[in-house]
Task: structure prediction
Amino acid sequence: MIIEALIPVFLVIALGHGLRRIGFPGDAFWPLMEQVTYFVIFPCFLFSTIAGGNLEGYDIGPMTLALIGAVACMALLTYALWPILGLSGRQFSSFFQTTVRWNGFVALAAIGSLYGKPGLALAAVSFGVLVPLANLLCVYVVTRTASGQPVALAEMGRLLLTNPLLIGCAAGIIVNGAALPVPASLFDTARLIGTAAVPLGLLAVGASLDLAAARSSVIVISAASAMRLLLMPALMLGACKLFGVEGTAMAVAVICGGTPTATSAYILARQLGGDAPLMANLITATTLGAMLTLPLVISLLAPG
Result:
């Protein structure tokens, strides 16, 4: 059941990689598609899913604490390992992004296949917690370790407030929580646009894979992949147990913890002076590794 539900996820990723390899529809297409998905389609998905989600019967507070707690533990552990790993500041910034950032497209596809609309509603709420937290941590760490100059608080605030994913999450939470009326035509438009988020996101993940480059830096890549794909979901499970999160909410949290690193980490590394080539290798390695580890994580840690 679990493997059957995840096979389409990785087949779409493989399709994206295959299309990029044969040059269809051209290299210029993929960056444009990623921009449309990130700035328009994905925010529409988050808004429509959260705003229209039925969260009655779910106590979001403990789940929120579990998500924050697990990510905080991973961030502290990663920092503690820096002297042991012997990485430069630029290398460590990419290592840190790997362990902390998560791929929402893979999470949504897996959760939707396994848990349907209730799972997607909880997954969208997870975005409202994890997206700002991961962005806040990674922007600060990359700027501090890669350049030695942490980003100013005003700039940090601007980056977060203008993040389209955060805007989509916040709008959905406000509409759902306050029971605000939304014209059916507008809501249906957002939902229709949002249906393209998962397939386009997975195609973009596949197109970004660089299998040849992933063979370098084996030790660093292996350590980061193990922390991202095995330790992170274990921390998420422990946090859920600690805060009393059970059932579908626990499964959603653990799956989010077990996804590969987000492809947006490469963009951040390139823009803020991190080790972009290493980041690309880490994204590829964790995406390929997740094909083996995610079914294991779901079957062992998040039975549902």
